[in-house]
Write a structure and sequence with these properties.
single chain; mainly alpha; 0% strand
Length: 95
């Protein structure tokens, strides 16, 4: 990956911004496009490394844990809803 330079001051441009951090000059559209392409390549490289070293198993485990938490939250909400309906019906019978 070739380091891009600011067209105004010549300093290296940041990877995560569209303005030069030294002089404030904005990147050209070509520089922004090249920067986005580099980010896409880096993301793909990270995905390949995670496949190589088995990190996807950890991600799946975290997703399963999140799903389990969501199931418990849904069960609690349903029980709470049923209790509220029972209380309302009880109060209506007494009225």
């Amino acid at each position: 990956m070739k380091q891009m330079r600011c067209r105004k001051c010549g300093n290296p441009l940041p990877n995560n911004d569209i303005f030069c951090k030294f002089c404030g000059e904005g990147m050209t559209q070509e520089q922004i496009s090249a920067n986005m392409q580099d980010k896409i390549k880096e993301t793909r490289r990270i995905e390949l490394l995670s496949e190589k070293y088995g990190l996807h198993d950890r991600i799946e485990y975290r997703e399963e844990k999140d799903n389990r938490t969501a199931k418990y939250a849904a069960i609690i909400l349903v029980v709470l809803f049923l209790v509220i309906i029972a209380v309302i019906l009880f109060l209506l019978k007494q009225a």
